[in-house]
């Protein structure tokens, strides 16, 4: 298969996947080597970016995904007439931030940090699949431990948790 055809196959697979696909997954589907897939994906990523396309290929959640160009978000919102109720509530954002930075963490620990009950926020985040149960704490009652998911990374456009802003940045803002 020629290189142009290989790129076309990779584009098609990303397009139909609709979610991040790992280089290993692409390699397995195409019978290419991981290194070749990574090289071709880097080239495709650059090509889409260089031509200022409406669609981009990005590395996200340990894989590659086709996404719309964020520079065109105004047009996409107009087209879709997006309902603002899909945003996360303030309690859900607070809860999600605590889980993202402290994971694995129990709901009681989240409640103590927030100073209020987080039942509704935790349920909402579980329903949206931004968090999941990652185990049970070895304490009396064996409460659930929560952590973030790939959907969380995808929603916030992060490759992995190391891309979260340092917690110190928020503490400096509060002190100012």
SS element count, helices: 9
Quantity of strands, as a count:
4
Which stretches are poorly predicted, pLDDT < 50 over at least 5 residues? none
Task: Please identify the structural class as seen in this structure.
Answer: alpha+beta
CATH architecture of the largest domain: Orthogonal Bundle
Overall number of domains: 2
> What is the CATH top level name of the largest domain?
Mainly Alpha
CATH fold-type name of the largest domain:
Arc Repressor Mutant, subunit A
| Helical amount | 40-55%
- Termini gap: 59 Å
The SSE string, one letter per element, is: HHHEEHHHHEEHH
List the topology elements:
Blueprint: H1 3-17, H2 23-30, H3 34-50, E1 55-60, E2 63-68, H4 73-80, H5 90-102, H6 107-114, H7 119-127, E3 131-136, E4 144-148, H8 150-156, H9 167-175
Antiparallel strand pairs: 1-2, 3-4
Helix pairs in contact: 1-3, 2-3, 5-6, 5-7
Q: What attributes does this structure have?
A:
4 strands; elongated; 2 domains; single chain; alpha+beta; 176 residues; Arc Repressor Mutant, subunit A; 53% helix
Q: Can you tell me about this structure?
A:
- This protein has 176 residues and is α+β, with helices and mostly antiparallel strands.
- The protein folds into two domains: 3-73, Orthogonal Bundle (Arc Repressor Mutant, subunit A), CATH 1.10.10; 84-175, Winged helix-like DNA-binding domain superfamily/Winged helix DNA-binding domain (Arc Repressor Mutant, subunit A, Orthogonal Bundle).
- Helix content is 53%, strand content 13%.
- It has nine helices and four strands; from the N terminus they run αααββααααββαα.
- The chain has helices at 3-17, 23-30, 34-50, 73-80, 90-102, 107-114, 119-127, 150-156, 167-175; strands at 55-60, 63-68, 131-136, 144-148.
- The strands form two sheets. It has a two-stranded antiparallel sheet with strand order 1-2. It has a two-stranded antiparallel ribbon with strand order 3-4.
- A hairpin with a 2-residue loop joins strand 1 (55-60) and strand 2 (63-68).
- Helix 5 (90-102) crosses helix 7.
- The longest helix has 17 residues, at 34-50.
- The radius of gyration is 20 Å and the shape is elongated.
- The relative contact order is 0.10.
């Amino acid at each position: 298969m020629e290189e142009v055809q290989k790129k076309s196959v990779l584009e098609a697979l990303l397009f139909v996947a609709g979610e991040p696909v790992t280089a290993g997954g692409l390699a397995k589907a195409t019978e290419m080597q991981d290194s070749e897939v990574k090289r071709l994906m880097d080239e495709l990523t650059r090509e889409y970016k260089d031509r200022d396309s409406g669609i981009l290929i990005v590395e996200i959640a340990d894989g590659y995904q086709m996404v719309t160009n964020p520079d065109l978000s105004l047009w996409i919102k107009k087209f879709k007439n997006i309902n603002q109720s899909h945003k996360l509530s303030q309690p859900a954002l607070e809860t999600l931030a605590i889980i993202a930075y402290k994971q694995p963490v129990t709901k009681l620990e989240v409640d103590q940090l927030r100073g209020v009950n987080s039942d509704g926020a935790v349920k909402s985040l579980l329903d949206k699949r931004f968090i999941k149960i990652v185990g049970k704490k070895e304490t009396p009652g064996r409460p659930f431990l929560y952590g973030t998911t790939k959907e969380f990374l995808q929603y916030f456009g992060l490759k992995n948790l190391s891309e979260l802003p340092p917690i110190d940045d928020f503490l400096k803002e509060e002190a100012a």
